[in-house]
Specification:
alpha+beta; two-stranded antiparallel sheet; 5 helices
């Protein structure tokens, strides 16, 4: 015996459209949600976060600034713990007969010292030694080996600090504008032979 299905009512064009929308609408909502997720994931840095929260990129920028300030403070503390260069001496390069004129301590063969912005030429109330000579030696070497045109005045001003920063950046050092032991060992120097009273034409970093 054949099964008879009830006859379906005739649908007007308007009812057909309504039923089609009801069937399609869940897929349309899902598509909009997916599209919205795509747009939110590709939001540009700096766009406001949901709920008015600060963008993550701003927090990272603040963290970076705080880290930079901490690094500067550490560099300043390390610089303060290192004595000022108060003279200059020729440091021999092995037994080659060549040496490097460079800033040094007063009455000492040590070159573990520093020069920084504000040395004019003395730092603070300590007026012993001859820091003017130390700064001039550094300025002359920067001019010759790096092609700058600093005024050789024995003052560690903003121009000298700027050149030291450029040199530090070139040699991939911490850029703090302070001439210290790490900068001394990384930078290029013009050599001097005391016996023949001659200067090298080229610069090198033999330390």
């Amino acid at each position: 015996m054949a099964l008879r299905l009830p006859a379906l009512p005739k649908l007007t064009p308007r009812k057909t459209v309504v039923i089609a929308l009801l069937v399609i609408s869940p897929f349309a909502v899902a598509g909009l949600a997916a599209n919205g997720a795509h747009h939110s994931s590709s939001a540009r840095p700096g766009d406001a976060a949901p709920g008015g929260a600060a963008p993550a990129v701003q927090l990272k920028a603040k963290d970076a600034a705080a880290g930079s300030a901490q690094t500067d403070a550490q560099a300043a503390a390390a610089a303060a713990a290192t004595p000022q260069c108060l003279y200059a001496r020729v440091v021999p390069i092995g037994k080659t007969g060549w040496g490097i004129p460079m800033p040094s301590l007063w009455n000492s063969p040590s070159t573990t010292c520093n020069l920084m912005y504000g040395d004019d030429p003395f730092r603070g109330s300590n007026h012993r030694g001859d820091p003017d000579t130390a700064i001039r030696v550094l300025q002359r070497n920067l001019n010759y080996c790096y092609g700058y045109k600093l005024t050789v005045d024995g003052i560690y001003g903003s121009n000298t600090r700027g050149v030291i920063r450029a040199v530090q950046k070139r040699h991939k050092l911490a850029v703090d504008g302070i001439y210290g032991p790490k900068t001394r060992s990384a930078m290029n120097w013009r050599l001097y032979a005391a016996k023949t009273n001659t200067w090298s034409k080229a610069c090198s970093s033999p330390l």
